Amino acid sequence: MKVSYKWLLELTGLDWPVEDVAHRLTLCGTACEYIEHAARHMDKVVVGDVLALNPVKGADKIQLATVDVGNGKMDVICGAPNVAVGQKVAVALEGASLAGGMVIKKVKIRGVESSAMICSERELGISDDHSGIMVLDAKIAPGTPLAEALDFHDYILTFELTPNRGDSMSAIGIARDLAALASTKVIRPEVKINEASEPASNAVKVTIDDPAGCPRYAARVIRNVKIGPSPWWVRKRLLLSGVRPISNVVDVTNLVMLETGHPLHAFDLDRFGSSHVVVRKAASGELFTTLDGKKHELTPEVLLITNGQTGVAAGGVMGGLNSEVEDDTTNILLEAAYFDPATIRRSRKKLDLVTESSSRFEKGADPNGIPYAIDRAAYLFQQICGGKVLSGVVDCYARRIEPLNISFRPQRCNYVLGADIPAKRMKQILTDLEMKVDGESPMRVTVPTFRPDIEREIDFVEEVGRIEGYDNMPDATTNIGPLFTPMHYEDRFRSELRKIMLGCGFDEMVNHGLTDSQRSKILNPELEQVRIVNPVSEDLNVMRNSMIPTTLSVVGHNISHRNLDLCLFEVGKIYLPGTGEDDWVEEPRLVAAVTGNTEHTWRDRPRPFDYYDLSGVVSRLASHFGWPEMKFEPKPFGFFRETISYEISFENQSVGIIGQLTDEVLGRFEIKQPVYLLELALTALMKRSGTLRQYQELPIYPAAPRDIAVIVDEGVRAADLISAVRQAGGEIAESVEIFDLYKGKQIEKGKKSVAISIIYRSRAGNLSSEQVDEQQQSVINTLKHNFNALIRDK
Fold first, then answer.
1. Most Cβ neighbours (<10 Å): which of 67, 169, 379, 443?
2. pTM for the full model?
3. If you average pLDDT over residues 36-54, what whole number do you get?
């Protein structure tokens, strides 16, 4: 999308420098990719007056033109077929650098010297037209710099727009964003039509047979137009937008499309074939010839504009050959319609065409912007083509499209953006974007139909953020909130949880919430049950109060079908009785189970799954979500083996269980191989998820590693040893890890040997051997005192 810089200033009343316009629009999401000076190929190019044309000896296609360039006359070789005496032309003088890299130098052709060149529009970088030289207004004085004569001291802004912003495919749409950035309003061009007394409804009638494909179709009639070239200001605006001028009628429809974003089409009313416009689906096999002269065999996918019998245009894509405006056209039927985006996409794919019109309709034009667009075009027809506009618009609105009214909470907006924007400022932003805002908190925002991309509250958050400026938002390290916002707290958390579990190699189970009351009672006799009044069967007669029964049912089913190696998880809910008689509470849970052997890979041989495969998952989740340090405390549960049965907690709050299921429990599900199971309560974990990670600079001083092996009672927990070492090691104990455990003949019965690695490091400077040895002795003394530890020799 190309738009003139001066055009944007005209529509907004601003006087910002072009770099500021491009930069601020880019930051708000209307990305300006390029800024080009319109006169970039007009340096050393002046207006010349062709005084004479003489043949060149031995050449049939070139002539010697004598040209007045203001400060004198010069001879210029010219091969253009349209050059003529008396023309005002663009003359590139010696040293001029034209489009395509051509630099004008003095040359001799057929013995004749020439040090200048009469240019076409392509050579001047104005358009792709190279059919002949560019002929200028006869009133321009020779020697006038071409950029001044053409009023080309302007810039061309090229925008790369996102597919959802159909409203930005117009000068007014881009100007609307620019005006909002300056808290001002768009200045729309005037529309003052002097309508004739004859009503347009006498000349044309509109019927829509496919309101789904064409909800609205409007028509105006303009009589007695005079076809000819457009005035320079129209042609210039089109050229700077990358559109080739054709004739005043076609140029007006293109100009209004570029201006408003709404495509229009002008038919020759006398060639239309009737006074009745019928919009319908094409019949299978129906033939139609488009403006480019190509014949198409249509299907019902194509929306057809007809004269009641034959097609005159492929709606929203391209007009037909038989009703196009020609040099002798005098009466115009002007169309402004709204077409369904999906219908236009199917139509243009069937026709294998992509046009300026189809691109805009596909992205979503404004059904309620039709009156302004068609009136603006009618006004220009009156001004430029000398037409007589018949009274009124024949407007068939078969399927009305109303603006959406959406609730918007300013506090929610600030929460998502991590900002503190006043509600008054948010209201101003949305109002500047031409939305109607009522109320305070929540606000009720009426979304204009030129913004079909705005459908939800979160879309307003984006609008506020981009106009206020993401670069003006507080720094992320000071304003970041929880990873999951309250509005979508559980959904986003569960989704993220699933991703991590899948990444850990687990397969997801999807169970319903029903289970067998007997099995549930055996597993959790202390938990009450929510019973089903009308159960579908006796083994599905209660809501599950634990994830274990449904998980073991799935494990048992897989094993019975010889799927012996399993890594399964489920994110679901359990149901517990509530305070009322018919009430219950839903609590989200994560359950994971492993059984059988690990996968055989090129790096690892298969081994039996064990407790550590699940405890490692907890560590992975805690690292990802930023949970506090998790503690695994031995605690007996009736369904876990006594030696491998733990409660998981943080900050003295129980959040889960982990262990190996007993043979008795597994037998009730006909499982004959070890199963390890993890269950986490997610409510507390969700609340502690997403805290901002704190990073430190890499250390610049060397580490001092020390290892120590101690013999302690078999009942001493590893976590207690690590905690004691960290405390005794003080601030310089950077990390403490257990790297070896030994039980065997060389160790007294009831004892175990634990090897601990300690890394000492200071961030203030180098540690001396004495400092490290002193701290290491403190660790040894603590272990001896707290655990009656025996220090092993190396």
1. 67
2. 0.64
3. 94
